[in-house]
Amino acid sequence: MGIDDYARWLSRVTLAVAIIMIGWGLSVVLSQPVTAWFAASATIWMALLAISAFWQLRGSFTAIAALALTTAVVSRLFSILRLNPPASIEGLNPQDLDLLVATGPGVPGFELLGWFLGALVFVQFILRAAISSFRANHTSGFSRPSGDDQIALGDDYEFRRRPPQAISRIRSN
């Protein structure tokens, strides 16, 4: 099994864990008394997590970065969630109002799931970087310059190969 197969399986496992996180988050939003702001925010971020989790199956670095960001946000939202907020702010004193915005103990175990998904995303990034690096160095259209090849620095400061006629003229001199 090659590195491409490992990357493909890792992206599938990452998608599965992201779906578990989304399902758990939706169950909390739908079954626990949370504020409307939290419900809206968490739903938007979980939708972005779902989009980026499916997008990362294509293997782009942008998709992996989007998945890392959405994983961190969703994990943070649920790991500091204050459950059972007051239904109304009427009649609350300033200390009680502070409790509405202060962080709580969060959903038990959600932070651990976030760390696990983040680790999967990090390993996936490393694998994709290794694959990209290997392909860049071993593509059929690219050859490394050897002693017989002459490299010229162009006016636009890009390296380019000299045509064979120029190399034969250099050798004849």
Describe this structure in words.
With about 170 residues, the chain is mainly alpha-helical. It folds into 2 domains: about 5-90 and about 100-135, Up-down Bundle (Butyryl-CoA Dehydrogenase, subunit A, domain 3), CATH 1.20.140; about 145-173, no CATH class. The protein is about 65% helix and about 5% strand. It has 6 helices and 2 strands, in the order H-H-H-H-H-E-E-H. The chain has helices spanning about 5-30, 35-55, 60-80, 95-100, 110-135, 165-170, and strands at about 150-155, 160. It has a two-stranded antiparallel ribbon with strand order 1-2. Strand 1 and strand 2 (about 160) form a beta hairpin. Helix 1 (about 5-30) runs antiparallel to helix 2, helix 1 runs antiparallel to helix 5 and helix 3 (about 60-80) packs antiparallel against helix 5 (about 110-135). The protein starts with a helix and ends with a helix.
Q: Provide the spatial order of strands within the biggest beta sheet.
A: 1-2
**For the CA atoms, what is the radius of gyration?**
26 Å
Structural class: mainly alpha
Distance between the amino and carboxyl termini: 51 Å
